[in-house]
Amino acid sequence: MAKVSVYNMEGKEVDTIELNDSIFGVEIKEHLVHMAVVHQLANKRQGTQKAKTRSEVSGGGRKPWRQKGTGHARQGSIRAPQWKGGGVVFAPVPRDYSFKMNRKEKRIALFSALTSRVEANKFIVVDELNLADVKTKNFAKVLGNLNVEGEKALVLYDGENKNLVLSSRNLPKVKAAKTEAINTYDILKYNTVVITKDAVKKIEEVYA
Fold first, then answer.
1. N or C end of the chain: smaller count of CB under 10 Å?
2. pLDDT of 75-124, one tens digit each?
3. Hey, where are the domains in the chain?
């Protein structure tokens, strides 16, 4: 099992913790990680784009001029795609972009993403993140103590932590989330994972 240091909010090492290799030390499956990211982004798409084809545009029922003898090219409708105000060729229609991904594949992708952060030394374990009050400045100082200030950081915690959530809202590069909301996309989107000791235990309880 891999050992990582545990820091306090002042950035001082206070303990070490062993990570479960079945979650934080797996073989990285890049194709499943890619699939999980595409799966999440595809499921977020609304798919409500719509444009009218020539059959849906109003008007154009009458043939604009006779077939022969005018010197113009023959035309059947003023709502054909080449006319101003005409329909769109191969117009987009509402569709569902989502697709299914097996639960086992999702788990392997999540474990691969977590492992990649551990191997890159971008997995920082904190003994606790209990802020006395709601102050973005104080939370930014904590991140500075952990050497992640200014970096894109995903902060994971277990249970309720209202002060942490509210204090992190005004930091554009930081996202605070519960362990229940952990996903492959967020782990890859943010350079560094800052996680409480309790959150590590929670993840190991759920997925081990």
1. C
2. 999 999 999 999 999 999 999 999 999 999 999 999 999 999 999 999 99
3. 2-45+97-207, 48-96
| Model confidence, pTM | 0.82
CA distance 87 to 54: 4
Neighbours of 3 (CB within 10 A): 9
Distance from CA of residue 207 to its chain's centroid? Answer: 20
**Cα angle 37, 185, 122; round to 5:** 130
| Residue 2 vs residues 24, 112, 119, 136: alpha-carbon distances, Å | 8, 15, 10, 33
DSSP labels, 141-155: HHHHHTT-TTS-EEE
Q: How far is CA 3 from CA 6, 16, 24, 118, 158, in A?
A: 10, 6, 10, 10, 21
Phi, psi torsion values for 76, nearest 5 degrees: -100, -25
Fold classification of 2-45+97-207 is Ribosomal Protein L4; Chain: A; (3.40.1370)
Q: Provide CB contacts within 8 A for 125, sequence distance 6+.
A: 4, 5, 6, 7, 17, 195, 196, 197, 200
- CA–CA separation, 143 and 147 (whole Å): 6
How many residues are recorded in the chain? 208
Listed as ranges, residues in the chain with pLDDT below 70 are 1
